[in-house]
Fold:
Amino acid sequence: MKIMRVVKTLVSTNRIDTMGHRPLLVVQEKEGSAPSVAVDAVGCVPGDWVICVGSSAARDAAGAKDYPSDLTIVGIIDHWAP
Amino acid sequence: MKIMRVVKTLVSTNRIDTMGHRPLLVVQEKEGSAPSVAVDAVGCVPGDWVICVGSSAARDAAGAKDYPSDLTIVGIIDHWAP
Amino acid sequence: MKIMRVVKTLVSTNRIDTMGHRPLLVVQEKEGSAPSVAVDAVGCVPGDWVICVGSSAARDAAGAKDYPSDLTIVGIIDHWAP
Amino acid sequence: MKIMRVVKTLVSTNRIDTMGHRPLLVVQEKEGSAPSVAVDAVGCVPGDWVICVGSSAARDAAGAKDYPSDLTIVGIIDHWAP
Amino acid sequence: MKIMRVVKTLVSTNRIDTMGHRPLLVVQEKEGSAPSVAVDAVGCVPGDWVICVGSSAARDAAGAKDYPSDLTIVGIIDHWAP
Structure:
């Protein structure tokens, strides 16, 4: 899993039906690195340092075997000093 | 998921049957970065900033469990300033 | 999917049985980049620019769910100017 | 699989239920490289050099097909001089 | 698949049961690049140039659907001049 910081929410009105209404968040490994999009499964806010799971595990973690995610936030880190 | 920009459509006359007639698009993370090919599941046009899902999730997102995709466009981002 | 160029065929006499007699090709993203090995599912020749699918989709694309491939050529690009 | 060194344990009080109480460890390939988070399936301590498996294999290795891991420690290396 | 060179065998006494007694080998893409660990499914020796398969295909290639591998050697290359 990767350690990433939540930057902000992402709005995508035109998306496939199977994504449902799960919140999508922009995350990045560190200031200046390429942003990724993660599905939020724990309820976090911008600034949180979180654990993101990828690969096929991201789908179950997002709540269903056929959920179209390859990056899902599965935990908020209690204390993290990057 | 990755945030990518749609560059153009890609024509491949000689391809395997299971790809069907789904549109294939050239996408890239930013100007000058290596281009990738994504299957379009939402209907987007060149210039759009989109959400691309990879891993095994790309297959279901493309419409069928056995669709041969490892990168599928699942949403168009409403506003994105890279 | 990645856009790659076919360099040459690869001979591996000692290989696991499940690979069968499918042709293996050396491919690379551009001159000088690290070579990869892909299973040919469309019938291409050195010099062709092709679409390569990875992840679990590479297995089905190679013809069977248990085929041991993580990179399979699924289409030849009609025109490509890198 | 990757060869990584265990740095320390990671505490995440707010995490999804399916992660259970498995220990989460911060690991890295070498001093200064980006840290990752791995699920410990063998019982190791900070300073150990370990074998980490990724992809879908990380899930079974963590103990269950639906465990949300994409990086699991599957062995401690007896002697390793990086 | 990747083209890698076998460096040496790796000993891990403390490992999870499902790994069994399959030989683990240290492999690398070229002199000086980061070493990886691969499961040997063909019987190779240090110095061999081999084809390594990753992703979920590495599991079947290692002999069983639930074998915890994400990198398995599936063939020895007859002639390779890097």
